[in-house]
Amino acid sequence: MPHTLSSSRPEPICGMDTWMPVPARILAIEQENFNTWTFTTRFVAEEIRKIYRFAPGQFNMLYVPGVGEAAFSLSSDPAEPETLAHTVRRVGSVTRALERFKPGGLIGLRGPFGHGWPMELMRDRHVVIVAGGIGIAPLRPVLYTLLHNPDYCKRLVLLYGCRTPADRVYASELEDWENNDAIEVLVTVDNADSEWNGPVGVVTNLLRRIKVDAKNTIVLVCGPKVLNRVAAWSFLQLHVPPDQVFVSLERNMNCGFARCGHCQLGGKFVCSDGPVFRFSDIADIFAKEDI
Ligand SMILES: Cc1cc2nc3c(=O)[nH]c(=O)nc-3n(C[C@H](O)[C@H](O)[C@H](O)COP(=O)(O)OP(=O)(O)OC[C@H]3O[C@@H](n4cnc5c(N)ncnc54)[C@H](O)[C@@H]3O)c2cc1C
Known about the structure:
Blueprint: E1 22-33, E2 36-43, H1 46-51, E3 59-64, E4 68-73, E5 84-89, H2 93-99, E6 106-113, E7 126-132, H3 140-148, E8 155-162, H4 171-178, E9 184-189, E10 217-222, H5 225-237, E11 245-248, E12 264-265, E13 268-269, E14 276-278, H6 279-288
Parallel strand pairs: 7-8, 7-10, 8-9, 10-11
Antiparallel strand pairs: 1-2, 1-6, 2-5, 3-4, 3-6, 11-14, 12-13
């Protein structure tokens, strides 16, 4: 089985200890929309490039010298681990500093951290991916992997929602996937413009347009809190068992390996028990907290 179809966790690559980032050079920067960029990077040291591996859904801690560090999902193809992409939305100090970088700039990376998506469970199943906005970033490695191995799952569906057509991330890839028989792609927007011919409304409305074989479906969800909540519950209402629904969560984090406690959620650490959780494992936290 190729490593990308396994949920095993590759060892993190770090400096002298797990807190220390390793230099990586920015090779390319692609603007996705008005506040989001995809940074393609490569470790400076060849020996690190040779051993670094990641599983779909894992994240790196990305360090901007003199500014700070934040968690970003790996959004590139795990089958090509020598170049790593992170898709970054501008919200605060680290992301604003990144926005000023040009190709050739040096940043620091450490990782990969966390539990990714359950690739093994997808074999011979129907896989329904629900993403909102930049929530598609940690799901892109799943899409690449399943599209490289089109016979691995029985059916692959992507339901993607954004505020407006201009907010879409990976717009040209979405168009390619729409023309690929190996995947069904449905994109909806909250607010259409004059050129938009597709569905309008929240992403869960798209569920009316697909038939869900509840017993055989694995659901992967990543988006804003409200989407995670509504999407997970919508699939439960369609009788998808709660242990077949997986949600990727975000929490402010510092270390990435369950030492600092910043990302603790009930008895779990989002950085190491997650960020991908089985819904049945967090249903009680979901019911109580705004996650
Ligand atoms: C496992 C994991 C994976 C992640 N993957 C990605 C990714 O692929 N791409 C990405 O862009 N981000 C991702 N994030 C979120 C990213 O780590 C945060 O947005 C981070 O705080 C940005 O750092 P900053 O210094 O720019 O902002 P900060 O200085 O930390 O935040 C500044 C302000 O923005 C607010 N803020 C922080 N995060 C968010 C948010 N997510 N939405 C809205 N407001 C926010 C804060 O409340 C604060 O007011 C991920 C987080 C986790 C835990």
